Amino acid sequence: EIVLTQSPGTLSLSPGERAALSCRASQSVSSSYLAWYQQKPGQAPRLLIYGASSRATGIPDRFSGSGSGTDFTLTISRLEPEDFAVYYCQQYGSSPWTFGQGTKVEIK
Amino acid sequence: QVQLQESGPGLVKPSETLSLTCTVSGGSISNYYWGWIRQSPGKGLEWIGYSYSDGSTNYNPSLKSRVTISVDRSKNQFSLNLSSVTAADTAVYYCARPVGARGSGKYYLDYWGQGTLVTVSS
User: Could you list the mean pLDDT of each consecutive 10-residue stretch along chain B, which spans 122 residues?
Assistant: First the structure.
């Protein structure tokens, strides 16, 4: 199965700053079948990005995804207070689908 | 707006079967895939499996021998049964909707339930 490794484990930033989260796969993710989710405490994950770079419905354009093959990035251009959360990547190009261990974006 | 809600026992004894139901509101269960994911401190997020509304299924190989997912279109519900549970199955269980080209096996998850904690303990 494909192992996804997210880095850093924790990102400490201030509102208004730019965040770049990395997701690396142990083997190539076919056709960029990679998604990003945001999870806040006590809530379910929320879809942000699918197909590596397509924003889900209602997601602000400060969120963007990029990458292909084994290296993917979620960028938040200017952090808003509601963006402090844990972010997960998921590959769905090969079975079993797998998730990264998460990156926590915390207020500095 | 599609909404999903999990229901079922919060405590299950070791060796017994964990059974959860997900009720779908705001849309029909027909012509979509429906799935289960769990989250535990030790293993993070783990995909369990999914079923199409016609009953065809796909399971995570690591759980395949113990998992059954079924769809009840008359009730707009789908269910998870996980047999022979141990403490390692303690987790928050989420129901979700996989989306993608039908039959491709390549689906991301666009709607999620709020999750329900299931503890396996005697």
Answer: 96 98 96 96 92 93 97 96 97 96 91 97 96
Residues 57 through 96 of chain A touching chain B, CB cutoff 8 Å: 88, 90, 92-93, 95-96
**A42 CA to chain B: closest CA distance, Å?**
8
Which class for A61: exposed (0-12), middle (13-18), buried (19 or more C-beta within 10 A)? Answer: exposed
A58 vs A61: CA distance, rounded Å: 9
Residues of B in contact with A44 (CB under 8 A): 94, 96, 112-115
Distance from CA of A102 to the nearest CA of B (A): 8
